[in-house]
Write a structure and sequence with these properties.
The complex is a heterodimer of chains A (379) and B (393). Chain A is 46% helix and 6% strand. With 379 residues, chain A is α+β, with helices and mostly antiparallel strands. Chain A has 3 domains: 187 residues, no CATH class; 31 residues; 105 residues, Cytochrome Bc1 Complex, Chain D, domain 2. Helices cover 75% and strands 0% of the residues of chain B. The longest helix of chain B has 32 residues. Chain B starts with 14 loop residues before the first helix and ends with a helix. The chains are: A alpha+beta (379), B mainly alpha (393).
């Protein structure tokens, strides 16, 4: 068996004053690679060890700023562009509402990145096992004593000299710590059957737990509240209101945000005179108009607007749209009739949007032109 | 515990300090008197500003004294006396409240019974907002503050001579009792004197808002005095960067705490959008008050925050002294912002507003000089003193 490889020489002290004194002495002796382990932060240790101010604060600052700015931009994007909803009648960019989340995420990202960089840069992780782990030294310093460990890779290291120096500081004990032979020679085998079995076991366990939670536990009382809510659905009746309707009608005079009410209510003449089709009869518009015409208009007016309905006499057939009267109507009048209805025809305002109505007008015009083509159209 | 004597040589404060205190007091008193003669109501509203700032200094300082006992803090022991001296201004608080008690009708709308009779909201609040109960509870507050001030400082003084550790234990008991008293009295003090100026307004966080500013104001004044005294060697030797850093950190912490509370109050009211609550902020966002509101955000949060953010600046004596004066001023702006919009719908700022701040600065200085003449500036008998001096971060 080889001689064990020395990691460091350690010494244990009983008091914080003892460890501060020891740190000063070791620093003055010129050692660089040593560390102090204490059960709690000892005030004044930075000075005693001659440590410079930590640069960790800048990482924290950067992470906090990035997290804060990032989440503020994200919330703004969500509420202004991705999913704009009017909440409480407030503008989409309601920054005071974003502040709490921004604040929390700033703190969270600063903390996580600080801990992450502590582990990555300062503790020099990942390593499988630190040589000081599982030694009497570590057990003592994580309980009630104060320890110093001078590492063997220090350029000035000499075991006899270090031991003498530490002994001169009146510690409780001085002890060398060696690398663990088994740890040093240990190699990881990725396809070790035991390791693979462990992975499979974990996968199985996690899947089972997830399945059980999502499909079993969530539907056991009292978690089934989402399914059995004490609430009314739109078509139900209620005794709460005199008209028994659960779905409340909008208050009279309500106007949706960004919506202008139809200004020619009951004024067919002015509608015909004033309204101008805002759409150009492009192929796309005509296709839209055809789709809406065939869906909503053709049942009565017929596929070609001849008044040949598919209603088989259940309703009186409407007159043909190829009459001179309708052909000479302005676009606005056709639009008005679709919007308000006429005689027995009801309003289609709630089924066909404004733009679609204008597309339908174009399509009706195209049908009329097709059945009354002029000579010049053949060219 | 070692009982070695800490070397301390008591030095008299220079006469320029008391001269400054006297000058400020006289100048302030003249302006206050002129204000009262020219515009009586305006004087009274300024009186409330003065009263609330003075209470912040006096009761806030007492809070730190008892906090030190409760937390077992050692770093602040060498300058605990400064806070004890500051809390002696609790007597000034009583004096400042007297003119207001004589003129309650002129400032408080809810004291008019004919107005209450026509007002459902005021009727609902009448069991709390009536002159009898108002007077009783505020007298109780003052008695409690003075009693705790007397007890805590009495045992602290006694320790100077006897060096007996038992006085620390006694004071810990009284500090424990003082903490809830502090929270409740300052809360209701703020509700009574500041919030009830707008008796139709609702805000459940208002008490916390006021005492978050109270911590800040008392600490700012104390920081300025502690650093100034230490630089000239009036305290014990050995106090330095580590103690400054702790003061700076506390200032920074409470700056954030105040901003957190202030923003919470604003955001909840803004979000709920209930007219009974929003009108208070709306009246502070028009007719020129919006500039005061913005100035408050800058003076009380943004400037202290960025000045105190870095570690070196928390240890910098010059910056700490500057921030001490600055935050004290910011607290006056805060009280002005809370109180004056109830007096005038349009922004109102003139020489009249200088009177009470000057008077308070003068009275704090004079009280401090008065106490410093009679007592040690350092609690030399405190068993924690040596550890406090040795404190390192």
């Amino acid at each position: 068996m080889n001689t064990p490889l020395l990691y460091s020489v350690t010494a244990l002290f009983d008091t914080p004053d003892g460890i501060i004194h020891a740190a000063e002495a070791v620093r003055k002796a010129g050692y660089k690679r040593y560390d102090i382990h204490t059960p709690y932060p000892v005030h004044g240790m930075d000075d005693a060890m001659g440590l410079k101010d930590s640069k960790l604060g800048f990482i924290t600052l950067g992470a906090g700023l990035m997290g804060g700015a990032g989440v503020f931009a994200f919330i703004s994007w969500v509420f202004m562009a991705a999913y704009p909803n009017v909440i409480g009648g407030k503008p989409f960019f309601s920054w005071p509402a974003f502040v709490p989340v921004t604040f929390e995420i700033t703190v969270l990202s600063a903390v996580l990145v600080t801990i992450g960089s502590l582990i990555a840069f300062f503790f020099k992780f990942p390593n499988n096992s630190h040589p000081l782990h599982d030694t009497p030294y570590m057990k003592a310093v994580s309980c009630d004593t104060f320890g110093i460990s001078i590492q063997a890779d220090d350029p000035k290291f000499d075991e006899a000299a270090v031991t003498a120096l530490l002994t001169s500081l009146h510690p409780r004990t001085v002890a060398p710590v060696c690398y663990d032979e088994a740890e040093l020679n240990h190699t990881w085998k990725t396809f070790d059957p035991k390791f693979l079995a462990l992975l499979a076991g974990v996968a199985l366990l996690v899947s089972a737990a997830t399945y059980g939670t999502m499909n079993v536990v969530l539907y056991m009382p009292p978690f089934d509240w989402m399914m059995n809510q004490n609430k009314f659905k739109p078509q139900q009746t209620t005794e709460q209101y005199p008209d028994s309707r659960m779905m409340r009608p909008v208050v009279a005079g309500t106007v949706a945000r960004g919506f202008t009410p139809y200004p020619y209510k009951g004024m067919a003449d002015s509608a015909g005179k004033s309204l101008v089709n805002p759409l150009q009869p492009t192929a796309k518009v005509l296709a839209l108009g055809k789709e809406k015409y065939l869906t909503f208009c053709s049942p009565c007016h017929g596929n070609f607007a001849k008044g040949d309905s598919r209603l088989r006499g259940q309703f009186p057939n409407p007159p043909t749209l190829h009459s001179d009267k309708v052909r000479t109507w302005p676009d606005g009048s056709v639009y008005h009739v679709i919007t308000e209805g006429q005689n027995i025809m009801p309003s289609y305002a709630s089924q066909i949007s404004r733009e679609e109505r204008w597309a339908v007008v174009h399509y009706v015009r195209a049908l009329q032109r097709a059945f009354n083509a002029k000579e010049s159209d053949q060219q | 515990m070692s009982t070695t004597q800490v070397p301390y040589q008591k030095k008299e404060l220079p006469s320029s300090v008391s001269a400054f205190g006297a000058a400020a007091t006289i100048a302030g008193a003249i302006i206050v008197a002129l204000t009262f003669m020219l515009d009586h109501s305006r004087g009274l509203y300024n009186n409330i500003i003065g009263l609330s700032v003075m209470t912040s200094v006096a009761v806030g300082a007492l809070f730190y004294v008892s906090l030190e006992y409760l937390a077992g803090a050692v770093w602040s022991t060498p300058f605990r006396r400064v806070l004890e001296f500051l809390s002696a201004t609790v007597f000034v608080v009583v004096v400042l409240a007297l003119p207001l008690f004589a003129n309650l009708h002129e400032v408080f709308h809810w004291t008019h019974s004919e107005a209450v009779a026509k007002d459902a909201l005021l009727q609902g609040k009448a069991p709390y907002l009536n002159i009898e109960f108002f007077t009783i509870r505020n007298v109780v507050f003052a008695v409690l503050w003075i009693a705790f001030y007397m007890v805590l400082t009495h045992f602290s003084r006694k320790q100077d001579a006897t060096r007996d550790q038992k006085y620390t234990r006694i004071n810990i008991r009284f500090s424990t009792a003082f903490m809830p008293v502090f929270a409740l009295t300052t809360t209701f003090f703020a509700i009574d004197w500041i919030m009830s100026l707008e008796p139709h307004w609702f805000s459940t966080i208002f008490g916390v808002y006021y005492f978050s500013g109270t911590f800040l104001c008392a600490l700012a004044v104390a920081t300025f005095i502690i650093v100034s005294l230490n630089e000239r060697g009036y305290l014990v030797a050995g106090l330095g960067k580590d103690h400054y850093y702790s003061l700076g950190t506390l200032l920074f912490v409470f700056t954030n705490f105040w901003a957190y509370i202030a923003f919470s109050q604003f955001m909840l009211i803004w979000y709920a959008n209930v007219p009974e609550e929003t009108f208070w902020f709306i009246s502070r966002w028009k007719n020129g008050w919006e500039y005061v509101s913005l100035a408050l955000i800058f003076t009380k949060f943004l400037v202290p925050y960025f000045v105190l953010l870095s570690q070196p600046s928390k240890m910098d004596a010059r910056k700490l002294k500057f921030m001490g004066v600055w935050i004290f001023f910011a607290h006056i702006v805060d009280m002005y912002w809370l109180i004056m919009p109830s007096f005038s719908r349009t922004v109102m700022l003139g020489w009249q507003e200088l009177g009470f701040p000057l008077l308070i600065v003068g009275l704090i200085t004079l009280t401090f000089v008065f106490k410093a003449k009679r007592e040690n500036l350092v609690p030399i008998g405190d068993p924690k003193l040596q550890r406090g001096i040795d404190f390192r971060i």
